[in-house]
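hi! just following up on the protien thing from before. the input was this:
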Amino acid sequence: MDKVKKVPALRFPGFSGQWEVDELVDLVKKSSSKYDPDKEIQSYKCVELESLSQETGILLEIFDSKEVKSIKNKFQKGDILFGKLRPYLKKYLKADFDGVCSSEIWVLLGIKLINDYLYYLIQTSKFNYISNVSSGSKMPRADWDYVSSTPFYYPHRKEQQQISDFLSQVDKRIEQLTKKKQLLESYKKGAMQKIFSQELRFKDDNGEDYPDWEEKNISSFLIERNIKIPKNDKYPLMAFVAYKGVTHKGDRYNREFLVNDEENKKYKQTEYGDFIYSSNNLETGSIGLNNYGSATISPVYSIFKIKELCNCKFIGSLLVSKKFINKMLKYRQGVVYGQWRIHESDFLNIEEKLPCFEEQTKIANFLTEIDNKINHVTKQLDGTKQFKNGLLQKMFI
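and the predicted 3d structure came back as:
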């Protein structure tokens, strides 16, 4: 313990001296106040574990405690809530109202720590580590006896407040960028609905209307690409991830260690601009263009080349629209999840209205501009989150 550095790597001017250390049980109290629906008259807002955000503590859903059928934990405004069930999900909230929460949520109150500081302490890698070490395997839960016996270094209250005030400003920036991204995504979604229903039309360079959209068979602008090859340097094995498309395999998606004949196994070949879908996961976003390039992916995916007479970005946007996906779902066959399938022949026989190539290009350019704005905000958001994570590493011990 004496060998541990007793000051953080990053500190505000005006503060000096070593931090104190105590077990968490001496720093924080876990509230035991309960709400019994059979005895209580007053109604409270109720929070379930799933309602806690893992990023900024934004409340996603609340409901009236009169709907509660079992005894729950009570909390007050300013208390810190932490989801002990599956703690790796990092679900937490600083309550801004009095309420009732799931029994799977700890209600924490600072003793020697102010609650604002405690809110950020539970977001540190150290707290995350100890809450997960104490978990079980089948349904992991953080163990309060273990967590509360862990020693934590902490500064005096004035420095605690300075740290939490600064981090709250970073959280406000994250919240602003998150809302901005959501607004842009909502705007794009609404624009796509109007464009593909032809409620919104574009003009040519002379201000004239483009010709009416023509109904065409999907096979008139898509060709199935059903080529299977072993992975190689030119065609590396990649994952097809919802809302990301073709991307490098992370640990989550890499299952190669389960395959014995990996060297001879064949995968589907795909090229830049191909349209790809998975029958099982259309609703969750496993559909879209290959914006990566030459690759191999799992044979479970259906892959199509877009003919040159079409703008591939327009076709990609059209075929991932909610209107078109709902049309696709009518062709899904099978009764067991995991075996549902939309046969390529059925998909190619779907009919859809298309504008002329020139209007396709204008639509694609318009949607690309929105995508560029979304990507710009996403980079800002990711950078701010990384900045916050760095602060959590350097401002705490």
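The first helix runs from residue 24 to 27.
Residues 20-154 form a domain with the Adenine-n6-DNA-methyltransferase TaqI; Chain A, domain 2 fold (CATH 3.90.220.20).
cheers
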